[in-house]
Amino acid sequence: MNKVAKSIALCTALAGILTGCAVPGGFGRGVEPTEGRFVQKMMAENCEVYSNNVKRIVNPDNVTVMSIRDGSFEGERIAHIGMRGLNSQLKYIKHAALLSCGGEDYWAAQALVDLGGDPYRRIIHTPSQKKKSYKISITWDDFDQDLSGTLQMRGNFSATLAVQLPNGQGTCLGSMSFPPKKSYGITWSLSCQTISKGGSGPTHSQTIETGVVGESKPQNLHQMRLVVGEVL
Fold first, then answer.
1. How is the beta sheet containing 98-101 ordered, strand by strand?
2. Count of domains in the chain?
3. Residue 216 banded pLDDT, cuts 50, 70, 90
């Protein structure tokens, strides 16, 4: 019995127990085939994959799309992927032509621009009654005015950030997360791909709540100060 046949047999045997089981190059339960093929194509043509520090050639037929779900931002999709023993992730926001491979920062992908995406499109959090959200403000050496945005909790230990740049320059996306030891304080990062700048640093706080302040690391050339505001 070859590997594909074994995978099919295993999926069939465990169908009543597991969800998202997929053969190599196939799709997990609930993955719409058209979107699954799109993810395979984006992964193969835009993402670099390494195993033991060796770059691997990614073929769409070897990309298994195990699941795809909505992300924190409007239009954001997050695909969980398997490739011959490796697990990875592909995130994309089509209307803003943004792509992220393996958890890296978003970047403007020409393939998504060709499909009508615009990196300067405004990106906002998807409203949710289940996820707590806050206003945030950013003071940044690069701008005369404070920047405004939102923070949305993602579970109990992390959050996503969306900050609007002035004059239609796009949206900065980022995150807040707890380190392995909570006593170290929460860290944050923000990336503004349309202007190729960003910042990151600690908050000196063990919780995400109104009044929390984060300042970018001293080595950042353009200092940034983030303040968590009122609950939305």
1. 64-70, 76-83, 86-93, 98-101, 107-108
2. 2
3. confident
For the stretch 7-44, pLDDT in tens is: 434 443 433 334 455 676 899 999 999 999 999 999 99
| Cβ-based neighbour number of residue 77 at 10 Å | 17
Burial class (CB in 10 A: 0-12, 13-18, 19+), 209: exposed
Q: At CB < 8 A and 24+ separation, what contacts does 216-225 make?
A: 222/140, 222/141, 222/142, 222/197, 223/140, 223/141, 223/199, 224/138, 224/139, 224/140, 224/141, 224/190, 224/199, 225/138, 225/139, 225/140
pLDDT value, residue 218:
65
- Residue 223 sits in which domain range? 133-231
| Coil, strand or helix at 232 | coil
Question: How far from the centroid of its chain's Cα atoms is residue 82's Cα?
Answer: 17
Q: Of 61, 78, 113, which residue is a domain's last?
A: 113
Same domain (yes/no): 19, 65: yes
Q: What is the DSSP string of 107-138?
A: EE-HHHHTTT--TTS---BPP-SSS-EEEEEE
Mark which of 63, 78, 113 sits at the end of a domain. 113
Q: Which residue has the higher pLDDT, 151 or 205?
A: 151
- pLDDT tens profile 59-117: 888 899 999 999 999 999 999 999 877 888 999 999 999 999 988 999 999 999 999 99
CATH, residue 178: 2.40.128.20
